[in-house]
Each structure stands twice: as C-alpha cells, then as structure tokens.
Amino acid sequence: MVTIRIASMRSAAIIFLTLAALVVLPSRKAHAAAGFGVTLVSPNSGSGAGGTSVTITGNAFQTDNVCAGGTLVPGSTSLSFGANAGTSVSVNSNTSISATSPAGSGTVDITVSHNCQVGGALRTTPIVLADKFTYIPVPGGSGPTASQNVRTLQAAAAMSAAAISGQLMTGAVQGGIEQAFSGGGPAIAAAPNGLSLHFAGLPQDALLYASAADMVFSTPPPAPPMAGRWSAWADLRGTGFDVNADGNQVRQVNVTGGVGRKLNEHLLVGLFTAYESFTVTMESLAGRLTGRGVTIGAYAAARVVDHWRVDGLAGWSDMFYDSVAGGAAGAYGGSRWLGSGGFTGTYDYSGVMLEPSAHLDTQWERDDVWIDSLGNTQGENSFSASRVTAGGKSLYSLQASSNFSVAPYVGVYTDYRFSSSNALPTGGSFVGIKNGWSARVAPGVTFTHGRNGPSLMLGGELAGLGTGYEIPSIEARVIWPF
Length: 482
Hints:
Shape: elongated
Number of strands: 27
Structural class: mainly beta
Number of helices: 3
Order of helices and strands: HEEEEEEEEEEHEHEEEEEEEEEEEEEEEE
Helix content: 10-25%
C-alpha cells in the first residue's frame, strides 16, 4: 500500500490541476486532428484521360459540426479534382470517400465540399500538401488532355487553312489564265477576295470583246509578231470569318503571282508562286494555330473550241506551323500538293458576257511527326480537302464616255466540299469550312479608262450560304496593262 501525504491544500490543488491537464489535453488534440480535411489520396496519380479509381482519406466527411452548429444537407457531399468534378463519388464513412478522376492535366488539389442546411453555407476542405493528384499524359488516349487538344487543333485547323488556300490560289491562277485569253482588256475576268495587278497584251482578243459588246473603239497599229505573247500577274487575296457557335475564328491572306506565255492563240503555259499566312483560333480548345507556306507550281490552258477552254494547275507547298492548346505547344513542318482542273465558256448575248464554268480543286497534305512541350509525341497528320464548284458569271459593259467604261458583274456558284483525315476525332469541334453543299454570290463593278487602259474593280463575295455560317469578303482589283 502506497500512501501519499499532502502537505497542504495548495499542494493538493496543484496536483489536481496537473492530473486534469493530462486527461484533457490528449482529448483536445484528438479533436483537433479530427478537423474537416483531406489527409491522404491513394493513388495520388492517374491517367490524363481520367477513369482512375481514387480513395480519399480524411476527417469529418459525415460530421454535422462542420456546419458550425447546423446539419449537413443529405447527399450534398461533392468532390473535385482541381476545377473538374469527380465522378462516381461515394462517402464510405466519416473518414473515407471513393471517386473516379475526370480527365485533366498537371497536378491538382482534391477537395471535399458540404452544403449546410443553416444559411445554405458551403464548407470546403482546406488546400494541403496531402490532397495533391497528378495527371499522367497519355499520347493517343481519348481524354481531352492538353496534348490531345493540340492534336485536334492541328488536324482541324490545318485542314481548314488548306481548303481556303486552295480556293484562293486556284482563283488567282484562273484569273491570270482568263486575263491572258482576254488579252488584258477591261477586266472582264473578275476574281473574288483580291487586289490584283495584271500586265498582258493581246489587243486582238480585247478588240473582239469590245466589238461583241458594241463598244466604241479604234483599231491600233499592227503589233510586232511576238508582241503580247507574255503575261505577268500578281494577286493579293484575304478572307476571314467567325464561327460564333463554337467560338472559332479564321484569318488568312494569300499572295500569288505568275508568268505565262501563249505558245499560240489557243495554248497558254505558265509558272506561279504564292505565299500564305493564316491564324486559326479555337476557343473550345483554348488553342491557336498560326501557319505560313510558300508554293511553287505550273499551269496550262487550251482553247479547245470557239467558246470553251480547259485549264489545269499543279503546285507544291512547304508549310510551317506553330500550335498551342492549353499547356501544350510546339512547332512543326509539312508539305502539301495542290491540283485543279476544269473548263470555262464565254458567250455573248446582246452585249451581256456569260461565263459558265466548272472545276475540281484538291489538296493533299502531310505534316511531320513532332514532340510537344509536354514531351508527348504527335504522330503524322495526313489529310485531303477537295471542292467541286460550278456556276457562272455575267458581265455587261457600259460606255460612259469615249474613254471611260463601267462594267457591273455578278457571279453565282455552288460548291461541294469533301475531305478525309487520319487524325481528326469523330464529332470534333468544327473550326473552318464544313463538308457538303454550299453557295456563293460574288457581285461587283469594274471601272476602265480607255480601250485597253488601267481599270479598277470593286466587289465582294458571300460564301457558305446554306451551311449555317457565312463567309463575307470584300475585294479590290487593279489592272494596268502594257
């Protein structure tokens, strides 16, 4: 038997308080350790595509006192991986929650939130080191990681840029062909979306046109045998449009120039070169693609019968791209082939010149393999973009004075576009020109000084009619024959 003899009441009080502290402090410490929060995430990493089963360990996941005297709203517990909500969330106990990770990238904090019945307050676990979860990028996976988004951007935006470049370059070359066969006369070849300078000389053809339109003219002196066999031309075209529903935008400029030679009155051959620059943005991917390219090629045209000619061209482009989508970015190159062929007619009905036409344009492109800024390999991107177009243009020349004429015109065309890609996801966000049928209208007017002098054409084009989006453009064209 042990006997403790207390000397005084003061000593007894000190001993009592000491024993009470030894009992109370561990209890208070245990309560503090049970505060609302996350203490462990297992596993703490998973696929960027999502779908990882995760167990979150912590405290007070089912405790009403988290609501400061109120009670939890039943079933209101939620869990987030950064800014994205977890799926299949299940509160197993007061200290355990299981959930499935959504798609994401980088390292994020896992937080648990409660809704309280008193005042509708939202309580969320504090950010701590233990709640981190790291996404592992998976090249070629199906989830929308930054690397996968930059891949989708590349596939969709490059195809759109190729389709637009094909339309602008073939239009420029066809304009040069048309002007060569018209002899560089008063701008009877109106081309959309452009500022054009043309230098050609076959006045015999120009006089035939003026005569057919009942214009007043005088015959010039005979030309030397080789005069007018060569023609040089340059063409500047721009286009741009917004796709408001998807937050996508396209801006593009093409400069094309060429030199042609008429081997005889019915056969033309030539060379052309072009430069293109474009920017495509996709808000849905937080992405932007910028690109530029240089093209070289050749063209030919032949008048097969009195009112009809056939023409064709082929070109090769060296392409350079810069892409960024979220945290993934990179630069890469590629090459593109362009081909076009078709036929155009010219008829005069009481001074009204009619030009029916039909053409097939197509582009094939292959972009190189590259590694993005997150270290993921982006595979080869191969695609084709094609267009069949048919329609016609009408032009009527009015002689305003002895040396000044005005020629209003309007063109109406229908287009059918089709494409293929090895990289564009099914159901991916639309970024540029849709496949299928659409219509174009291109009105304008040309002012010409003299029989074969300088001229100014002002006009515009409204494309994409019938597709749910429209592509407006304006055009100014200057021609200075010599």
